[in-house]
Amino acid sequence: MREAIDTVLAHLDRYADTLWGHAFRLPDEAGGGIRLVDRTHNILEGRFGSAKQGVRRRTGRKNLAWDLEHLPAAAMLATNLEYSDHVSVLCGSLENLPATFARLDADQAEERRQRPPGTEQPQEKYLPLPIASSALPREDRPIVRSARLQACIAAAARSRAPRVTLSAS
Question: Which of 112-121, 130-139, 151-160 has the lowest mean pLDDT?
Fold first, then answer.
């Protein structure tokens, strides 16, 4: 038994700096104190797993690729409404949630009305780029899978580069 305890203590001495989260001292302007940051992203992975489980429960499908691709980005944020501290920061209480969003929409609409024509905000001018992943974006699939593109690729593969002869001068 003593040997097992000594082994655990030796590992703690050797790896203690990397076993737990990292401590950061915040400046006084940011509230001061010390904050611990998780060493891994297991909590985020767990939230994603819960979200997948919810989608699977709603759809009954095993393969969730299509469902997750078409899930709005804000859907993951909706789970924050389960936590009272998030709700209190956002709108005070769930009863105030509709009024808070209505006020936000009204404020944004008023800002757009007061701007001179042709001076749109950058986020209105450009659409955000999709997050890159290993899966082919759904918008590109018809193009990549088209017979025309495959014929172009096959023709390029069969062609040879032109021969260039260099003359000695």
Answer: 130-139
Domain positions in the chain:
1-39, 40-74, 83-116
What is the rounded CA–CA span in Å between residue 14 and residue 8? 10
Token pair for 81:
């409404």
| CA trace torsion 97, 102, 107, 108 (10° rounding) | 100
pLDDT digits over 91-133, tens only? 899 999 999 989 988 888 888 888 887 766 655 555 555 555 5
- The secondary element (H helix, E strand) that includes residue 84 is helix 84-90
CA distances from 8 to 11, 39, 53, 55 (A): 5, 20, 36, 41
Cα–Cα distance, 39 to 43 (Å, whole number): 10
| Whether the Cβ atoms of residue 109 and residue 118 lie closer than 8 Å to each other | no
Name the phi and psi angles at 116, rounded to 5: -65, 150
68 is written with which tokens?
């997750």
Q: Which helix (H) or strand (E) holds 35?
A: strand 34-37
What is the identity of the amino acid at 158?
R
- Can you read off the two tokens belonging to residue 63? 């393969």
